[in-house]
Design goal:
By secondary structure, this protein is an alpha/beta fold. It is built from 10 helices and 17 strands. The protein has 2 domains: 175 residues, Rossmann fold; 125 residues, TPP-binding domain (Rossmann fold), CATH 3.40.50.1220. Helix content is 30%, strand content 28%. The termini are far apart. The structure holds flavin-adenine dinucleotide.
Length: 325
């Protein structure tokens, strides 16, 4: 049987989500190392309509798994339908976006397929003709390189693979199968949007972002004062600050928060966990202030300041006051 690399598409309201394209980019990198056809699989009642977007995006085969009545995500449905749909594809690698959905159905799907499962994959490179998968541990301080035997399901870390549009060479096609499914254990009651992203974050040219390293809530005052030095600026934070209720969730940057791309992003007391980087990696210039010279954020930063943020930010404010007429 011809081997394949499968991408499980995530979609909402009839559109593929950006992380699906990142999973496709991961599949393309594996394909460069180990040639195989790529098949994007779309599951749901509107699978055929959504499949068209995948076809338009690049030169790939798309399998639309039409499931009557499945008008929104259901983990049980994904595990069940995908375990059947993937049987005939000879999948060596199955790339799943590393979102709440991917983590929900991915490991269970791997079990059903008799595949292994690697999570948080952020890079792939070649060694002796085999793909080696890279993920980080301990908030980016340790990088693990993993080799795996096919079949393996890969949960792809959001923000790690860059999608570039490809020339469409006209070899792509959609195959449609219909699978009947009825919920037995879980059913969706509804969606609630809890934390709308602050539009000020999207519009800001400068974002001063606070992490757990600010240590005390009162230090947010320093962060606000530094932000106020710049026109069109905003204050944001990492997840622990929002969990502590020091900042509202609408100001959280990262995988489960806002994705931002300001001209300047100042990360103050932020370690640089992948989940945070996923939301701010696109910033044009990154300044990181951290007492730990080994902090992972320094790999992303254009300027790294190894200093206590209270000392550095106070100096910055003082210097700015001195220079302001
Ligand atoms: C599914 C999932 C989704 C997630 N989504 C998000 C998300 O959207 N956004 C997000 O941010 N996180 C997210 N996380 C959490 C993420 O994994 C990290 O735990 C979090 O980003 C760490 O936040 P931090 O860098 O502020 O804190 P820490 O990792 O604790 O880092 C604090 C840093 O401050 C430094 N520091 C300490 N004192 C000082 C000082 N006085 N001056 C300067 N530096 C100092 C330390 O050296 C350290 O590097 C998610 C996790 C999971 C599992």
């Amino acid at each position: 049987m011809e081997r394949s690399i499968v991408v499980v598409a995530e979609h909402t309201q009839g559109r593929l989500t950006p992380v699906t394209y990142e999973a496709m980019a991961c599949a393309l990198e594996i394909q460069r190392i180990q040639p195989a056809r790529i098949v994007t699989v779309v599951v749901g009642e509107d699978a055929v309509e959504v499949a068209q977007e995948a076809i338009d995006a690049c030169d790939q085969s798309v399998l639309a798994v039409k499931v009557p009545g499945l008008d929104s995500y259901n983990g049980e449905a994904y595990r069940w339908t995908l375990s059947h749909a993937l049987c005939g594809l000879g999948a060596s690698w199955i790339c799943v976006p590393g979102t709440t959905q991917g983590f929900d159905f991915g490991p269970g799907l791997a079990v059903r397929l008799g595949a292994s499962c690697l999570s948080n994959i952020e890079r792939v490179f070649e060694q002796d003709g085999q793909p080696i998968f890279v993920r980080n541990l301990f908030n980016g301080k340790i990088s693990a390189e993993l080799s795996a035997a096919a079949p393996t399901l890969l949960i792809v870390q959001p923000g790690s693979f860059r999608w570039e549009r490809h020339d469409i060479k006209g070899r792509s096609y959609v195959e449609v199968i219909t699978v009947e499914w009825a919920p037995t254990h879980t059913r969706l009651l509804g969606f609630k949007s809890l934390y709308p992203v602050d539009s000020a974050l999207r519009d800001a040219l400068v974002i001063v972002s606070a992490g757990r390293g600010i240590e005390r809530r009162e230090n947010l005052e320093l962060i606000h004062r530094v932000a106020s030095l710049f026109p069109r600026s905003a204050v944001a934070g990492s997840r622990p600050l929002c969990d502590n209720q020091w900042l509202p969730y609408r100001l959280q940057v990262g995988q489960t928060g806002a994705t931002v791309a300001p001209d300047l992003y100042m990360a103050c007391g932020i370690s640089g966990a992948q989940q945070h980087l996923a939301g701010m990696r696109g910033s044009k210039f990154i300044v990181a202030v951290n007492t730990d010279p080994e902090a992972a954020i320094f790999h992303e930063a254009d300027v790294g300041v190894v200093e206590d943020l209270e000392v550095f930010l106070a100096d910055l404010l003082e210097e700015s006051a001195r220079l302001t007429p």
